[in-house]
From TrEMBL:
This is Dyp-type peroxidase family protein. Its cofactor is heme b. It comes from the Bacteria. Keywords: Heme, Iron, Metal-binding, Oxidoreductase, Peroxidase. GO terms for molecular function: heme binding; metal ion binding; peroxidase activity. Residues 327-338 have a biased composition (Basic residues). Residues 339-348 have a biased composition (Basic and acidic residues). It comes from Thioploca ingrica. The keyword Transit peptide does not apply. InterPro entries: Dimeric_a/b-barrel, Dyp_peroxidase. GO terms for cellular component: cytosol. Residues 299-348 are annotated as: Disordered.
Length: 496
């Protein structure tokens, strides 16, 4: 095994990067894109999805080199800005799909990625449209713009909407020389009146994340029952050495999914579930569905002075405190006894790094005019969100029945197959995980076409041993997305 490989294995085991005191850790951050090890904090984000034009390879590579050198935000820059409490800077990412790699002639269809397992490589290569394992809706039912092939996505984020609009216009003007703009999604940080991030169902979001930086780990109040730390190998992948100097560079696999949320249907089902279970209020029923109350407090009992995230399910094998089918428990079993006999340590290896944002689109924004340019559509979207923010309507439930709201889901991992796909297909979509006839995850679970609707088993409030079947599902619909890879800055800067 080469010295470079030995070094990568050693680095992949690091948990708690300390760039304040370790030069090697700073070097890792300087070559890595931001947003992977820690999330950025900007009000608005634009995702510009591209298809590279034929016969424009030279121009495409030249622009990627320029963007990587002049615009792309490194993890080191992100860490420095965060340490100095600077929040007004532009934040950027650039991800490539497998089709993008093939276009750039960096890989053939048979050798597209760098995972240690061939099946993982196949998983990324085939893309999201061609993946039956996830039980997603058929691609022909996705939003029309998502039915085209995607080669790359450029992420631009900024607190000021007018400054973001200027950056988007400048970037599009550059891109149109060598790429077709397929779609632009616009996301925003939806927040509660208390100031924390929530999603459209009203629940606190992003509480439980793998943590890689020592400074983030030190912010946790307690870690007696759950350790949020994670080694770099959970999220990073060693890249090919384009420079030929034997150095190691890191990237990360990304999953992007546009998830439409049926908020009115969800709220109505919560009311019905509360009635079925004889609960006095709807908040308890909503918490049973999610596994947490809306403010993020878990259903599992917490000792005094314990962090919201410091708990596991080892002492709740039958779901007496938190239902076995609750979303947060399905997506992160935290030691739940299960038919697969996965240990807590094994379950932790499937964790993903989530970086989702909310979206809100009116009927007009969903159905752009035939000759409407991508930038004009983006401008309408950002103007709409800005107007809602000025009217103090961005963070409540002010949308109409014709509006579409949801989550622009983005996650990073070392392996799409072993992490995101495992969570979605093996846990959320399995009626029998963690045990027999538990039912689908009530939030993100997707059943197979031939599978009958089974519902989940819920405990009646007055008689916990008595169960009632109630089907709580299909209030989140996937309407488009793709698998990507976030290459290192070095990789992108040295494209030839």
């Amino acid at each position: 095994m080469s010295t470079s490989n030995n070094k990568f294995i050693e680095l992949s085991k690091i948990a708690g990067l300390d760039p304040d005191h370790n030069q090697e850790h700073r070097e890792i951050l300087s070559k890595l894109q931001g947003n992977i090890l820690s999330g950025y904090d900007c009000h608005y984000t634009a995702y510009i999805f591209l298809k590279f034009k034929a016969q424009k390879l030279t121009e495409t590579k030249a622009w990627i080199r320029y963007f990587a050198a002049k615009k792309l935000t490194s993890a080191k820059q992100q860490w420095e800005l965060s340490s100095n409490a600077v929040t007004h800077n532009l934040f950027t990412n650039l991800f490539l799909s497998s089709k993008g790699y093939i276009y750039l002639a960096l890989k053939t269809g048979d050798e597209i990625a760098w995972g240690t397992n061939t099946f993982w490589e196949m998983f990324f290569r085939e893309g999201l449209k061609n993946n039956p394992l996830l039980d997603d809706p058929q691609p022909q039912t996705w939003e029309p713009r998502w039915q085209a092939d995607i080669d790359a996505v450029v992420l631009l984020a900024q607190n000021d909407s007018s400054e973001l609009a200027s950056e988007v216009q400048e970037t599009i003007n550059q891109l149109t020389e060598f790429a077709e703009i397929i779609n632009i999604d616009v996301g925003y940080n939806k927040k509660s009146s208390e100031g924390y991030v929530i999603e459209h169902f009203g629940f606190r979001d992003g509480i439980s994340q793998p943590l890689f930086l020592k400074s983030d780990l030190e912010k946790n109040c307690s870690t007696n029952y759950w350790d949020p730390s994670a080694p770099l190998g959970l999220v990073l992948v060693k890249e090919e050495d384009l420079c030929g100097n034997g150095q190691y560079y890191f990237g990360s696999y990304c999953v992007y999914r546009k998830l439409e949320q049926n908020v009115r249907g969800f709220d109505q089902a919560v009311q019905e579930l509360a009635q079925q279970l004889g609960l006095a209020g709807e908040e308890q029923a909503a918490a049973l569905v999610m596994g947490r109350y809306r403010d993020g407090t878990p259903l599992s009992p917490l000792p005094a002075n314990t962090d919201q995230n410091d708990f596991n399910y080892i002492d709740d094998p039958n779901g007496n405190s938190c239902p076995l089918q609750a979303h947060s428990r399905k997506a992160n079993p935290r030691g739940s006894r299960n038919k697969r006999n996965e240990s807590l340590a094994e379950q932790r290896q499937h964790r993903i790094v989530r970086r989702g944002l909310s979206y809100w689109e009116t009927r007009e924004l969903q159905q752009p005019h035939e000759n409407e340019t991508p930038y004009l559509l983006f401008q309408k979207k950002i103007d709409f969100l800005t107007a809602k923010a000025k009217a103090n309507q961005l963070h409540g439930k002010f949308f109409t029945e014709e509006d579409k709201v949801g989550l622009l889901f983005l996650c990073f991992q070392n392996s799409i197959f072993n992490q995101f796909a495992h969570i979605q297909a093996t846990w959320a979509n399995d009626n029998h995980f963690s045990t027999h006839e538990v039912g689908l995850d009530p939030v993100i679970g997707q059943r197979k076409k031939h599978q009958p609707i089974q519902g989940q088993c819920w405990s009646i409030a007055a008689e916990p041993e008595r169960k009632v079947k109630y089907n709580f599902s299909q209030f989140v619909k996937m309407t488009g997305g793709e698998f990507f890879f976030a290459p290192s800055l070095i990789f992108l800067q040295h494209l030839e």
